[in-house]
Amino acid sequence: MAYRDLREFVKALEKAGELERIKAEVDPVLEITEVTQRVARDESRKKGSVGPALLFEKPKGSRYPLLVNTFGSVKRMAMAFEVSELDDVAARIRGLLDTKSPQGLFDKIKMLPKLAELGSFFPKGVKDGECKEVIQKGSDINLFEFPILKCWPQDGGRFITFPLVFTKNPETGKRNVGMYCMQVYDERTTGMHWQTQKHGAEHFRRAREKNPEGRISVSVAIGADPATALAGMLPIPPDLDEMMFAGFLRKEPVEMVECETNELEVPANAEIVLEGYVNLNEMRTEGPFGDHTGFYSLEGEFPVFHVECVTHKKDAMYMTTVVGPPPQEDFYMGHAVERVFLPVMKMQYPEIVDVAMPAEGIFHNLMIVAIRKSYPGHARKVMNAIWSLGQAMFTKVIVVVDHDVDVHNYSEVVWKALCALDPERDVQFSLGPMDTLDHAARMQDFGSKMGVDATRKWASEGFSRPWPDEILMDEETKARVAGMWASLGL
Ligand SMILES: Cc1cc2nc3c(=O)[nH]c(=O)nc-3n(C[C@H](O)[C@H](O)[C@H](O)COP(=O)(O)O)c2cc1C
Ligand SMILES: [Mn+2]
């Protein structure tokens, strides 16, 4: 049975010993971040173990409890998807992809809705929802009633960090849901940090082409059952409904309810909903914001969200996350995405054996890819494939290794990749779109990428010297020594 809503998941976390309640008053301005950091990154904990989810029952200045670090471990991500291992989700996706085999990756993903339809994972419209227990409009609205975090000292203000931002494609009417951070400017206004390559930004541009003086409806849900809450960050193709995907993940349709003041629908089980619009001719300075990179994202010009109506559960729980120096909660969310979407990648590029994105690489800075190399230049073909694959386009450095390198063992990767390199020959530069948060790029959103071909070099690639074998002891000797081991007194 799917989790009905966020609090049912909170109960499950608590039962599993994965959540702690903080009864003391703690300030959402900086203090909650510091407490979360100490718990989530506690180095005294056993290596590999990470801190629990935290429910702050008394955030200073608010009557709403605050939930953070909800998904901050591999175990909790698996719990969110109701599986024992993330690979179980990957296996379900593999199953879908195996059903039929159309050509392009895009077609395959496009087919998901059709297949999902069979399993009736499509969102279901409902008349009413708990998210409407309280309805506030106009001057009754005050976003500061919620314990919205100011995460880091130089942040430009308080930021809503775990929103589901709903828009509709003005041309097709198709829904998009994205997780885009929102700086609170005043009681009823926030920023809307959809980066230029994201689907929300595309809806905004298309609407603006039609009517530059107009507006686009936007609704924002905060806090929902885990699969739904996580759907906003999934890197799925445009016009594929994240709510359908959430239904697939939770194996039950997401129930959607119409908004009070615009034509959008939101999850009926949401804790808090902000309804409103974004003017197509209005931009405002947003930031700085202590970001995923571990550095402050600089100020930038972004659209502005005007809130016209707030609805929420009577005893709403405010869900948020802290991003900052890696690893943070978002690492575990990103790691789940890496595992879950690997089958989709492998389907299109069967030579890909495995991929890894180390936490320190902040997802977009480093991808290690193991391939089964079959022809000259194969590693470079894979780099180009990754640079044109959805949000993997942002990958700044790609290191391609042979299939017998364990990409999750970073010391093995560093050792073998460096041994396999003639840097001048094996490094490939390319230009293309960059993550908006990349502060080293020559300009915002555009810059260079580097691919490192760390595979064995072949004669057919112009390598004329012999390539040595890796040193491995022979099995007979190993067996003989195993036999005499006890007598060696070691
Ligand atoms: C905690 C968190 C915060 C995020 N903040 C932003 C953000 O402010 N702006 C943005 O464009 N993407 C942000 N992202 C990444 C997007 O959610 C992600 O790229 C998603 O796939 C976008 O949805 P879309 O493909 O429908 O546009 C964030 C992700 C996480 C996990
Ligand atoms: Mn999308």
Give a structural overview.
By secondary structure, this protein is α+β, with helices and mostly antiparallel strands. It contains 13 helices and 23 strands. The protein has helices at 6-15, 31-40, 74-80, 86-99, 105-118, 199-210, 226-231, 242-250, 329-348, 378-386, 410-419, 423-426, 475-484; strands at 19-26, 53-59, 66-68, 124-126, 134-137, 158-160, 163-168, 175-178, 182-186, 189-191, 215-222, 255-258, 265-267, 272-286, 289-290, 296-297, 300-312, 318-319, 352-356, 366-371, 397-402, 427-433, 446-453. The strands form 5 sheets. Strands 5, 6, 7, 8, 9, 10, 11, 14 and 17 form a 9-stranded antiparallel β-sheet that branches. Helix 4 (86-99) runs parallel beside helix 9 (329-348). The longest helix has 20 residues, at 329-348. The radius of gyration is 24 Å and the shape is globular. The N and C termini lie far apart (53 Å). The mean pLDDT is 95. The protein binds flavin mononucleotide and manganese (II) ion. Residues 161, 176, 178-181, 193-195, 198-200, 232-235, 321, 323, 330, 333, 391 line the site of flavin mononucleotide.
Helix/strand class: alpha+beta
Number of strands: 23
Report, as a whole number of angstroms, the end-to-end distance. Answer: 53 Å
> What is the average of the pLDDT values?
95
Bound molecules: flavin mononucleotide, manganese (II) ion
Low-confidence stretches: none
Biggest sheet character:
9 strands, antiparallel
Oligomeric form: single chain
Apparent shape: globular
